[in-house]
Amino acid sequence: MQLSASQLTPQTHTWLSQRPKECSSQLLVGQQRALNGLTAALRQTGAYGHCFAIVPRGFNHREVFDECFATTTWQHSRWFDWLYLADPDDALRPLCVNVPSGNAFAVIGALQHILQQPLDQRDDLVEELVTSFDTRALRDYIQRVKQKTFDDFASDQFATVIVGHEHPAPYYYCDRVSESQLFGQMGVQSIGGTVRSDLHLLEPGWILKANGGVLAIDIDALLDQPAMYKRLKEVLKSGYFEWPQPTMEAGAAYFYRPEPVPIDIKIILVGSRSSYATLTDYDDDFSDLFPFLADFQSRYDTTQQPVSEYFKFLDYVWDVADVLPLTEDAYAAVLTELSRWAEHQHELSLDAIALLQLLKQANAVASHEEKTQIDSDSIRSAVKHQRERGGYIEEVSRRSILNNEVRIDTAGKVVGQVNGLTVVSVAGVEFGEPSRITATIHYGDGDIIDIERKSELSGNIHTKGVMILSAYLAHHFARHEPMSVSATVVFEQSYHEVDGDSASLGELCCLISALADVPFKQSVALTGAIDQFGQVQAIGGVNEKIEGFFDLCALRGLDGNHRVLIPKSNQKQLVLRPDIVQAVEQGQFHIHTVDHVDEALSYLCDMPVKDLYRQVKLNAHHEQESENRSWWQRWFS
Length: 637
What we know:
This protein is an alpha/beta fold. Helices cover about 40% and strands about 20% of the residues. It has a seven-stranded mixed sheet, sandwiched between helices. Strand 26 (about 565), helix 22 and strand 27 form a beta-alpha-beta unit. Helix 15 crosses helix 16 and helix 20 (about 505-515) packs across helix 24 (about 610-630). The chain is elongated.
């Protein structure tokens, strides 16, 4: 089916008609699934109720959790100040005591006052202290020291505040993961030749700072140091935090053992989907400790959710970008680009960082041209500049084709040759370019030789695609008698590994051309995967592939005969550049969708597909008769 220009881009006017006159800023639009997972985790307590948050690229993690915790809290948050108090019976074993949040220094002051009083005058003070700041650990400590004086303490350090919470945060975030940042450290010092540690040398990490609340941790940084991930699991399973111990080389400091701190915390590991899959597959404890998943999505489906909500996201990014206001046509250009990033006509990207960069660059263009608003020309200029900045490799590749260093025909007809479409990825830059696929036939037993695989330049998926097209040919032409011809197929002038099955449609058509000895049009390029019955299946990178062939044809001169064949199931992924849409509208370039290999063959040759298949069978029968003759009969015939 030939596509019209209106089918090559999303219907942005429909989206714009749903734009509210007034809307609030919101980052997390369309993220209800993730928010539900996070809320479920925050409703549960215990060692086996933590959460993993999959946050795709394009999101600032802090901004995501700032918005999440603006309205949601861990229902089991319990904030305490944590102190270490000297043990009168053991100078090397300071005791851990928690007191109500914000009262650490008041408790230390009260304890010091009690210890300074005569023994017979302490009861009322002790009762007042316990009544005002009642915790079990504090009561236990008072019972231990209420009959002591400062002279009874072997340590010259009486108390230190490890963590104080006058104004606890909704959550804490640890992005620079190191031993000291996450777990804290116990320092040592040398006094009179003796290495020792003491209360004032204890420095808390995020585990203690967030104790009683929520701590988000960057999992990729954590997994760079597996020993820390293992230790985190031990803390969560035991419910206690033990200070990192100095090595034996530290001498006397090695025996300094502060009492473990009870831990009651909600952990959120933040990372990518690949990190989540790795932990799920290789860590037996992971699913037990982190049963909840908050899966933030990178695209907004306009068929499932109201488009009006998406404008809240746009308003949020625009506000953060701090740029000029956008005109109506600028919104249309932005929505088109966002749909292109999502690679779907009914979806919009949620990549806030990329959108922020686009708006800032468009704002620079508009400001340079002394405009008071960002219009569609500013947006398109920013997009064009982005493409040009990363387009050097693409330019060099295309120049090699124009100079005939790499041969790609875009006119005429050739037997056993078609133009496939590929996507090249180099140094973070992706672009489409055509690739010449050729096939030859010879005497044999019906097998297809994939030169890419023989030369070890074929990936597993590409090899699978060649096997599938072999099965299709065998099913179609060798069901009742064997074919006495074999074929070779190759990507010409390809010197790197070829993977993916998107070329299998082109390879099959190329083989049929060679088997039938019928020339195919070189003004046509095609892409698509196939199954064993010839059905054409979806592929990736469809926009880049079309644009790569169009750019080559445009440089050589469009004549109205150039066309691209893509799978019908890829139609909704089309978000093409304005110049291609214009060329299609003017009839200079054509895009067709195909659902079966027969449809593709009808565009490639000027004869009915039935006649083409009949020619394949006739040639195969002729080769069979030729093979049955002696060599000298074949030679002199």
